[in-house]
Amino acid sequence: MIAIALVGALFLSGMVRGQNRDQPASPTTPGPHTPSAPAQGERLPGIPEQPIEGRETLPLDGPANPDRQLDYEPATAPKVEFLDSLGDHLAYATQVVDWELCESGEGQCATIKAPLDWDAPERDAIEVAVRRVPHGDSSRGPLFVNPGGPGFGGQDMAQSLAGRWQNFDTVGWDPRGTGESTHVVCGSFEETEAFMRLDASPDDPGEDEELRQGSAEFAQQCRDGSGPLLDHITTVDVVRDLDLIRHLLGAEKLNYVGVSYGTYVGAMYAELFPNSTGRLVLDAAVDITGDDEVAQSEGFELALNNFTAWCADSDLCSLGDDQAQINDDIDGFLTGLDDDPLDVDGRPLTQTLAATGIALFLYDTDEAYRTLDQVLADAMIGNGAGLLMAADILNGRSNNSYDTIAYAFPAMACVDGVDEGLDRVEEDWRETFEKAPIMAPNMGLGYTCQTWTADSAPQLKLTAAGAPPILVVGTTGDSATPYRQAVTMAEQLESGTLLTYEGAGHGAVTGDNKCVADAVDEYLYEGTPPEDGATCR
Predict the structure, then answer these.
(1) How many structural domains are present in the chain?
(2) Positions of the region Disordered (predicted)?
């Protein structure tokens, strides 16, 4: 009930497609570096060019977050440990960055300090982990990359894409709350396991109340573990950190490739720091309009129908040759798990977990179809191991533990968004059944944000006024971030330019399509975006 909303999940399992064009340079150990202080009168890094207060915000339909547990007080100190402050904003801008060879032997790694609360830098500090991989002569400077989420770290993406764009040093960072940075901590493995096993498709008031109570308890566990960190992991906080990292790496402008939620990071950066914005590639856009009516389950339904259409026409698929029947069989299988979960080595493959496992494959292109066919065929005859493993990947579960993503995703998503309370959830969920009759009912609903213990960030309207051209890329068959969101993002950003990829999969820029690659290269190397509305097939 957490993972079904993840956007960027394939990076977690190393499924970044495409080959590097050249081999990256061998990393060296540059040693400590102290950046120059901003000249007198210049903006300090992390300080928005215009105050956040007073900016235009998105309209709300009613009271925001009426049922959140904002008065919940933990009985003990949080498990997250904060650092001593460096002092004021200038002290953070001139901190010594100690670059070292990463433990893996690939790339250069460093940890920087940022204020826990950017508006009170004299208080506690946090750590932000950064990795850069040099390439060629590094003459183009750093190119920052973000895989999405929210809740994913970016260090692995930097390593995966190193050398893809010549003479750029690829830089990835684990946003605050994630990965090796100061990260969100919630309950024990057993507590999280119990939460993940809750029935997210309630059939009666008793099941619904159990889901509500379990969500409230999960939210309390995260406050117990993370304390005030939960109040300072909004995307506004993330991009203020990013601006600090940009400065500490000596880049005058931010050059950036963001996928999925990473498009929100890029758009927010351009909104707050338009004069420090360089060339931004925003691939698989999320909604920034606040009034988008396309549910994510509709994207998964589209991708599932693409799969079952292939299945019906292909000799390589074992599920049958009639698409309607295949859809009915999948729906019947998932629905049957509601009352009778499959046993997988002592663990139940529930209706929710099975739908989550299917969703993992729908993030990918049609290259994943044969594997999805096999996993579904096995599950339908009683072997649910492959489908449960896929669900575990999306849920961040491995080796009887949960990765940070299981906690960072809800923590970051809930403070970035607003909700209308518990009582609207089921009604909104059922309204999606007509357009997503298989995925919506079986993926279920969630009450996590409605019972969260932190309030929302201001719902800024992102237009990036004054920023240079921004390239937005949308894939027509994207399962997780429907194509329409790329259209509306390009329209709302004043300098947005839309590039459409007619194909399947979650994101196109890291794939193998030559047309997309050439357009992105031209933009990153020369600053020239393709004609607005251009299409690659």
Answers:
(1) 1
(2) 18-71
Residue 31: inside a domain = no
* Distance from the first to the final alpha carbon of the chain: 34
Q: What gap in Å lies between CA 133 and CA 122, rounded to an integer?
A: 32
Q: Where are the alpha helices (DSSP H) in 135-254?
A: 155-161, 189-196, 205-226, 235-248
Amino acid at position 362, single letter: L
> Tokens 């901190």, residue?
95
Spatial separation of the C-alpha atoms in residues 133 and 354, rounded to whole Å: 38
**CATH assignment of the domain containing 340:** 3.40.50.1820
**Which residue's entry shows tokens 């946003």?**
175
The count of C-alpha atoms lying within 13 angstroms of the C-alpha of 378, restricted to the half-sphere facing its C-beta, is 17
Work out the number of other CB atoms within 10 angstroms of the CB of residue 209: 11
Mean pLDDT of the region 20-37: 60
Instruction: Give 366-379 pLDDT, tens digit per residue.
Output: 899 999 999 999 99
- In the predicted structure, residue 13 carries a pLDDT above the cut 50: no
In a domain, 454, yes or no: yes
How far apart CA 118 and CA 46 sit, in angstroms, is 8
Q: What does the block give as tokens for 470?
A: 């921004």
Is 143 in contact with 149 (CB distance < 8 Å)?
Answer: no
Instruction: Give me the domain span that covers residue 355.
Output: 1-11+59-77+132-537
Task: Report which DSSP code applies to 531.
Answer: P
Mean pLDDT confidence for 360-364 = 92
Q: What residue type is 22 in one-letter code?
A: D
Tokens coding 238 = 């993330």
Mean pLDDT of the chain: 93
- Cβ atoms of 108 and 100 within 8 Å: the answer is yes
Query: Would 19 be classed as within a structural domain?
Result: no
What is the pTM (predicted TM-score) of this model?
0.93
Half-sphere exposure of 461 (CA within 13 A, CB side): 15
Q: 287 lies in a domain?
A: yes
| Cα angle, residue 381 at apex, residues 380 and 387 outer, rounded to 5° | 50
> Where do the H-state alpha helices sit in 382-458?
385-395, 405-416, 425-430, 439-443
> Strands across the sheet with 97-101, in order?
31-33, 97-101, 108-115, 125-133, 169-173, 142-146, 254-259, 277-283, 470-477, 496-504, 534-536
